[in-house]
Specification:
By secondary structure, the protein is an all-alpha fold. The chain has a domain of 81 residues. It is 83% helix and 0% strand. The protein has seven helices and no strands. The protein starts with a helix and ends in a 5-residue tail after the last helix.
Length: 155
């Protein structure tokens, strides 16, 4: 019973922090989980969200990234141009690097579930206090940006 009350309190605090920070993604995510908790016998649903939620999120993010291809804004010509510029190569390498790091991260979470709370807390702090965004492909873009700030060919 204590753990159940603690989970409500913890999620409530996260929701308050999200509201104060005006972080829409965190507000929606926390409210969604709180709503699921209100429904009796939803342990299986919460477990499914825990196990598959990251994959669903990555799928939605990937779909949004593919929209410019679907609308014709980006085509093969643009892909070929990426291979012709140093900036394109940095972005390609960062995309590869982030996907490799992410696979190791998923393995870490499976092997050490206690790391999850530290990651969740760190992500919440980064999103709320530093106006960060919790999204994988965006990390690749951020790494690309950082590298481009350092390398001389981008100045």
């Amino acid at each position: 019973m204590r753990a159940l009350l603690e989970s409500w309190l913890f999620l409530g605090i996260i929701l308050i922090i999200a509201l104060i920070a005006k972080n829409q993604s965190l507000i929606i995510a926390t409210a969604f989980i709180l709503l699921i908790k209100l429904i009796p016998q939803t342990d299986k649903l919460l477990e499914m969200v825990q196990l598959k939620g990251i994959n669903w999120g990555v799928t939605i993010i990937t779909a949004s990234i593919l929209v410019p291809i679907a609308t014709g804004q980006i085509g093969f010509k643009d892909l070929l141009e990426a291979f012709k510029s140093p900036v394109g190569w940095v972005a390609i390498l960062c995309g590869i690097g982030v996907s490799l790091l992410s696979s190791k991260g998923v393995g870490l979470l499976s092997a050490s579930p206690e790391v999850t709370i530290a990651l969740v807390f760190g992500t919440i702090m980064g999103v709320v206090l530093l106006k960060g965004v919790a999204a994988g492909p965006v990390i690749a873009a951020g790494l690309t940006y950082c590298i481009l700030q350092i390398l001389p060919f981008t100045k």
